């Protein structure tokens, strides 16, 4: 049902936690399942110097947060803003159809954190 990449990121999630002095925070919830994700970003010279996340979600959400944060770390704000849930799901070698909404939490959370940063700067 799940790809090896999903299982690996679920078992060893990258970038879990908070950034105490973050420049932006995105808090999103899924209208499908009610689960939540928080994404924290640290911005330097227009790039995401650090990205962390916490989720109150399922295994697919854990893996999506791990992969999504890895994908945008080091990217410019403009590049990171374009991330989609399908890109996250594809980078995980796919998610089951009924779990695609879980990858929305990662992509939406990252974009929400960037929007928070932009609204402050
Ligand atoms: Fe809620 Fe996956 S079922 S995030």
Which small compounds were modeled alongside the protein?
FE2/S2 (inorganic) cluster
| Distance from first to last alpha carbon | 43 Å
Helix segment tally: 5
What structural category characterises the helix and strand content?
alpha+beta
- Return the average pLDDT rounded to an integer: 97
The amount of helix comes to: 40-55%
Q: Which term fits the overall shape?
A: globular
Largest sheet: 3 strands, antiparallel
- What string, H for helix and E for strand, traces the elements in order? HEEEHHHH
Q: What's the count of strands?
A: 3
User: In order across it, which strands form the biggest sheet?
Assistant: 1-2-3
Radius of gyration: 13 Å
Question: What percentage of the residues does DSSP assign to strands (E)?
Answer: 15-25%
| Poorly predicted segments | none
What does it look like?
With 121 residues, the chain is an alpha+beta fold. It has helices at 4-11, 59-72, 77-81, 85-91, 100-120; strands spanning 24-29, 36-44, 47-56. Strand 1 (24-29) and strand 2 form a beta hairpin. Helix 1 (4-11) packs across helix 2 (59-72). The protein is globular and about 40 Å long. The site of FE2/S2 (inorganic) cluster (FES) has 10 residues, from helix 2 and helix 5. FE2/S2 (inorganic) cluster binds at residues 30, 33, 35, 57-58, 60-61, 99, 102, 105.
């Amino acid at each position: 049902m799940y790809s090896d990449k999903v299982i690996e990121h679920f078992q060893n999630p990258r970038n879990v936690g908070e950034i105490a002095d973050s420049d932006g925070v995105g808090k999103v919830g899924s209208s499908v399942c009610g689960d939540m994700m928080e994404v924290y970003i640290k911005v330097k010279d227009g790039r995401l110097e650090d990205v962390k996340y916490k989720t109150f979600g399922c295994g697919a959400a854990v893996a999506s947060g791990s992969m999504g944060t890895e994908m945008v770390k080091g990217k410019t704000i403009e590049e990171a803003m374009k991330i989609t849930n399908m890109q996250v799901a594809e980078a995980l070698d796919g998610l089951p159809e009924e779990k695609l909404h879980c990858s929305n939490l990662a992509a939406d959370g990252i974009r929400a954190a960037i929007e928070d940063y932009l609204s402050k700067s």
